[in-house]
Amino acid sequence: MIFAIAVSVFLLFLCRVLQVWLKYRFHPIPSHPWPIRKDLNAKVVARSLKNGTLPKIFRPEMFPFSSFSKGYILTDFKMIKEAFAKKELSNRDSSEKVKADVKESHHRIGLDKIALEILGPEDRLIKNGPRYFIGIGDGPYDGLHKQFRMMWFDASKRLTGKNKMKEIIEQSSASVNEILLREGSDKNGTDPKEVFMNGTMNVVTGFAFGTFLEFDNPDFKKLAEYIITIFEYFSLSLLKRTIAGKIPLFITQNSFYQKLWNKFAKFKKRDDAVKNFHRFIHKQVVEHRASLDTENPRDYLDMLLIAAESEPRLGYDVVAATVLGIYLGASDTLANQLSWLCVTLADRPEIQEKMYEEIIASIENENEIKKENCPFTRSVLLESQRLNPVVDSLMHRACSDVVVDGVLIEKDSSFQASLTAVMHDPKNFDEPDRFIPDRFFKNGEFVNDIRVVTFSIGLRNCIGKQIAVDQYFVFAANIIRDFRLSRSSKSMEIAPHLMIRMPKEGAVRFEKRI
């Protein structure tokens, strides 16, 4: 009897395996190699584009995941544009399994206790309670997400109207150049990535909290340390979350599983950084509440606190995670874009000089560097972003069956866009592997191209795009105005990383212009 049951179970298992194999063996969407590391999959994309074998949509073949799953990579611009404009395809994975994983992590770290200790039981964020998702970049494309975006645009408009944002960007840029002069002017140069990280983080600090902190300020140093540490483990955190969405719920909720993961990934350093970051945010909440004017919000945190009074989904963890998401999204990616720009220009002194002449002419005519007066410079900056894409899109999740460009994307499918493929596709750009500084400079004018999708595209595009574009221009223009760039290291290899495409060695000399 027992033998018969065992044989029956085994046969059922074999039938299920065969069923799955047949389903994916004859799946209408092809599979294609997709290494889990960003530096490796960028090479696969480049090679496949050259030989014409890259599908416009495919099931990724990568370890530990295989093509036996409802996960897709989109590579065609037209298809991505259509897909990312659809509400049904603009969600993040906020399943109960993922929330359970986040909840277990919160309890293990003690984030609820930290919030209660600092904010007190009567604070609205405590009463609203935890929601167990990671803020503005997460969750469904619903009313709350739209509210996040409206608050962002409102805060941007208020700060821009008061010239506060411009002032913060200029101050941060000046601080960056001071450090580059001090650390990068000798023959050995310096890798500017960390300096750019500090500069970009300070701009976020100004937007989120309405203040500028000097780089040597003890509070800023601590904040920068927390964010850099969290980002260091961010890829592994996303991997853990992805796995949580694919395994049974009871495993995710098992304390042994959580302890095993954290021991394996050595998350203690990250956990300490997350706790300290939450303490920092909650203290900012207390300070902001003491002088909060509901009729005249000063910054993004003010707007979140005001909205929380009538929006119960804005709990203490959502506010902290939203601010953290802004730091992660706006600092490291832009710092890498600036690093790629410096490495690229360091080998091209003639382009630096042409940019310098244009920048100086703008100063002489307007007493400041204006984007509108620097079309060639803007072309160079956009071309650097196109040639050296830093990240691909975040993962999307389908909430229903949707047909895109004749292809069915099934409900509960996960998918992302390869922005690298779009910006290196010869159908979109001639000689895509070449750096052509005047690619977007036509008849003396800057001509934008929507296929340069640095900040993604569609309903879930980068919410801070405009601030990032302004910041990128100001930082770059001031560097070219103040320095001549040359490279100390000759390597142009891409550093190994799960998510970010960044230069492995980026030592650049910043020689002060006289």
TrEMBL record:
One Gene Ontology term from the biological process aspect of the record: organic acid metabolic process
Q: Which residues bind heme?
A: C462
Similarity annotation: Belongs to the cytochrome P450 family.
Q: What is the lineage of its organism?
A: Eukaryota, Metazoa, Chordata, Tunicata, Appendicularia
GO MF terms here are: heme binding; iron ion binding; oxidoreductase activity, acting on paired donors, with incorporation or reduction of molecular oxygen, reduced flavin or flavoprotein as one donor, and incorporation of one atom of oxygen; steroid hydroxylase activity
Q: Which InterPro entries does the UniProt entry name for this protein?
A: Cyt_P450, Cyt_P450_CS, Cyt_P450_E_grp-I, Cyt_P450_sf, Cytochrome_P450_fam2
Pfam families per record: p450
Cofactors, names only: heme
The keyword DNA-binding is annotated on this UniProt entry? no
- What is the recorded name of this protein? Uncharacterized protein
Q: Name one GO cellular component term.
A: cytoplasm
Q: Which UniProt keywords apply?
A: Heme, Iron, Metal-binding, Monooxygenase, Oxidoreductase
